Amino acid sequence: MTRSEKRIRRLVVGEETFLWSVRHSHRRDEQGRNVDCAETLTLRRHGARGRLRLVFRDRPGKLVPDGYPMFSGAVGTVDGPLLNLHEPGTVRAALDEALARGWDPDEPSGLELDGWAVFEAVAARRA
User: Fold this and answer.
1) Which residue of 46, 55, 69, 83 has the smallest Cβ count within 10 Å?
2) What superkingdom heads the lineage (predicted)?
């Protein structure tokens, strides 16, 4: 069964429920080619107004899926770890790291972070 990128998933942490999704995005250049690929993990606490967006943009030395051989949700470094953003354990590690860095789920403006800025810390939490 194929995983739907548009499906909102639940993550229960203690007494709280968080909702999350993973999306792939890019823009097209003048020739119609896909460029600037990104994987985005979006989290919010159920009933809260704020959102956390971790955006992993394609850049040198970083791996973002755009077809074979990378699978949807995979982000990593050329010579380092690989994270699957579709795995609840990875989402929990990202949530814990964001909370440790001061993310407030009730902040209505939300927060967007460069996913690569927290990548190593999230990978360490997964190890």
Assistant:
1) 69
2) Bacteria
